[in-house]
Design brief:
Elements (H helix, E strand, L loop, with lengths): L2 H17 L7 H19 L1 H6 L5 H16 L9 H5 L5 H25 L1 H26 L8 H22 L1 H13 L5 H7 L6 H27 L5 H20 L2 H24 L1 H8 L3 H29 L7 H30 L9
Length: 371
């Protein structure tokens, strides 16, 4: 959310309230509806489907994850090379591409090397990084939408812990067997002995670890919701944003408690996290934002798709390169999922750095700061 976008959103809300009617939707409001609100409603509608997925083989989840990654998951980070160009003044195309390319090469290579050296530690690091990033994405979405019950940095960081922890932590409570299976698949790419791979992940799935995650997630959720409620009850903030926050949290808790983990993550990655980031990138691209202002969702998506296409293909080449180099090879659907996750881990770390830079430019973690 640029300063202009934030101002536009605030002005449209003010105009609507001043006339007692409804103002035309701003680009930010349309993007929020297209890429965040409607997908959240779709995920809520899919809850009955998610609830029966534990009855089916894990291969259903693997296929869902592959489809979601193919359709939108891989593409959502494929415009990172243009983010500095569009979000900061006086950054040339050449410099934007060069800096982001170096970040990806160095950090992505370090992640892959970490899996070869210590696959269990790298797996834990990937979970922690994804926890951070998915929380980071949701907080930015709330900021773009003008949700105003999280006015301090501390409250937004707590929201990050909750939002990122739901997809990463809650499946460990409800479906630890499948969660563990995925860990064994990933570690097994680098530890050829299957028995050794299973033993290596044992410490991650003890009852004590699961209890700590469960208690921590419940406490963080209640704390975040309670702080927001205290603000809206005191009349300091509007209730609409708080209600939306609580509604989304309820959907996410239900989704990750009910659905089988691989299926749940596959749907969430494509339908929730990736789409929200695509919406954010639409707003920092003047041409795509202009299409959004005109109500042209197809035009905005076409612009994004054109920009993302080359590096989306590059992402799949990274998956292929990882698959060609892992010691155990790729012989089953579980191996393919594991290879994809290692490749995604390699791309996630530099992606997080780019998104953190964008957060800083837009003042996501310094509410009210001049951007």
């Amino acid at each position: 959310m640029t300063e202009a976008t934030a101002t536009e959103t605030a002005e449209s809300r003010s105009a609507a309230s001043g006339r007692g009617g409804t103002a035309p939707e701003s680009a930010a409001a349309r993007v929020d509806r297209w890429f965040a609100r409607n997908p959240a409603l779709a995920l809520a509608a899919l809850l009955p489907v998610g609830a029966v997925t534990p009855l089916f083989p894990v291969e259903l989840g693997v296929a869902t994850f592959a489809l979601g990654t193919l359709v939108v998951g891989m593409a959502h980070g494929a415009v990172d090379h243009l983010v500095p160009l569009r979000a900061a003044p006086n950054v040339s195309l050449r410099r934007s591409i060069a800096v982001v390319s170096v970040v990806y090469a160095v950090l992505g290579g370090a992640v892959v090397a970490a899996f070869f050296v210590s696959p269990v530690a790298a797996f834990v690091g990937f979970i922690a990084l994804t926890w951070l990033h998915w929380g980071q994405g949701d907080v930015a979405t709330l900021a773009i939408a003008g949700v105003d019950h999280l006015p301090t940095s501390a409250e937004r960081w707590l929201a990050l812990v909750v939002r990122g922890g739901l997809p990463m932590g809650v499946p460990l409570l409800a479906h630890p067997e499948e969660y563990r299976l995925v860990a064994e698949w990933i570690v097994g790419l680098f530890v050829v002995d299957a028995t050794a791979a299973a033993a290596a992940v044992d410490p991650l799935f003890t009852p004590e670890i699961r209890a700590a995650v469960g208690v921590g997630m419940a406490a963080a959720t209640l704390g975040s919701v309670g702080l927001g409620y205290r603000r809206v009850r005191a009349g300091e903030e509007r209730r609409g944003g708080w209600r939306r926050d609580v509604g989304e949290l309820a959907v996410l808790w239900a989704w990750f408690l009910l659905a089988a983990p691989v299926f749940a993550i596959g749907v969430y990655f494509a339908l929730w996290h990736a789409l929200r980031h695509v919406g954010r990138l639409v707003l920092v691209d003047p041409r795509a934002a202009s299409a959004a202002s005109a109500g042209d969702a197809v035009g905005a998506l076409a612009r994004f798709g054109r920009d993302a296409a080359p590096l989306t293909l590059g992402g799949f080449l990274v998956v292929g390169a990882v698959g060609a180099t892992v010691p155990a090879g790729v012989a089953a659907p579980g191996d393919l999922l594991a290879v994809s996750l290692v490749a995604i881990a390699a791309m996630t770390l530099p992606h997080v750095v780019v998104v953190a830079w964008l957060d800083r430019r837009e003042g996501v973690w310094r509410p009210g700061a001049t951007r």
